[in-house]
Design goal:
Blueprint lengths: L2 H27 L15 H15 L3 H15 L3 E5 L16 H15 L9 E5 H11 L3 H14 L4 H17 L7 E6 L5 E8 L8 E4 H8 L2 E5 L2 E6 L2 E6 L4 E4 L2 E4 L5 E3 L2 E5 L1 H11 L1
Antiparallel strand pairs: 1-2, 3-4, 4-5, 5-12, 6-7, 7-8, 8-9, 9-10, 11-12
């Protein structure tokens, strides 16, 4: 190795050492992580043990067992959390810690460094599991998509930004549409109807001249509301429950029981399927309640 190479190696080592020191200082004495977490409600000791076993079963690919165990917890305790350390790690007895609280873990890291002069990343060894989320993931692996949707609605109602659940719900909805011989849409959307029901619908964002609108299949709207949907040429009709709504493809007006309602963008055909703005779902649901 030349003198220049040795010099550059020494510079790299010094830079890595400095970076490690900066990260250590930030972790020990800086602010808690941006994703600060304090999970509630907590599972009982019984629920915690079952969720631990369910988590391990899921990790090993035994999705039936994971489903059975997580459902037991869900049925008895509802939407609860469990936290534990990985099996190959034990916290020193002189360190007090609450695994459900990020701030407590960060404090334990500081305390451990103060007592033992060493840095240990306790977040790395913690496992957190949720009864509803594990149940939904197990159902996805088992291909039981309709059941999954029920639990996904509960999670998204609690946390609209629950990205893992939203992703798995999108995937399950796409698979269901493919099996039904329909073109998959890009996303799923959680909506609350005027009767306070929460439903999940398949949606696609409009592009080009349709930009700004969110579309969903007209047949799905009819199914959700218990209406009959008919389409002849460019005319589409929703019937039932005291409702008669008619519209023309590529027209942004719809007639609901003689009342004219303007949609944000016109409906359009995608393959053999009529897509309409999601606002139509809400308007039809309101008309049913009147």
């Amino acid at each position: 190795m030349s003198k220049e190479e040795k010099k550059m190696k020494k510079v790299r080592i010094n830079m890595l050492s400095l970076l490690t020191l900066v990260l250590l200082i930030v972790t020990l004495w800086g602010s808690p992580p941006a994703s600060k977490l304090k999970v509630e409600p907590r599972a009982s000791k019984w629920g915690e043990q079952l969720l631990k076993e369910a988590h391990e079963a899921y990790r090993k690919g035994n999705y039936v067992r994971a489903y059975e165990l997580s459902k037991k917890v869900y049925d008895k305790e509802g939407d609860v959390w469990a936290a534990w350390f990985k099996e190959n790690f034990k916290i020193p007895s002189d360190i007090q810690i609450d695994l459900y609280d990020d701030e407590s873990i960060l404090q334990a890291i500081r305390e451990y460094h103060k007592k033992h002069g060493k840095f240990i990343n306790l977040f790395k060894y913690r496992v957190i599991e949720n009864s509803t989320a594990l149940l939904a993931h197990s159902l996805f692996k088992l291909g039981r998509y309709e059941e999954l949707e029920r639990y996904a609605i509960e999670i998204l109602s609690r946390d609209p930004e629950a990205q893992r659940i939203r992703s798995i719900l999108d995937a399950s909805r796409r698979l269901r549409r493919e099996k039904a011989g329909k073109n998959p849409l890009h996303h799923s959307l959680l909506m609350q109807l005027p009767d306070r029901r929460k439903v999940v619908i398949d949606v696609e964002r409009g592009r080009g001249e349709r930009a700004g609108a969110i579309y969903t299949p007209a047949e799905d709207i009819a199914r959700l509301l218990g209406l009959r949907f008919e389409q002849q040429g460019h005319k589409a009709t929703f019937l039932g429950k005291g409702i008669k709504a008619t519209m023309q493809i590529e027209s942004d007006f719809v007639q609901i029981n003689g009342r004219s309602f303007k949609l944000p963008k016109p409906p359009y055909m995608k393959g053999k399927e009529l897509l309409v703005p999601v606002e139509l779902l809400q308007e039809l649901a309101k008309a049913i309640l009147k």
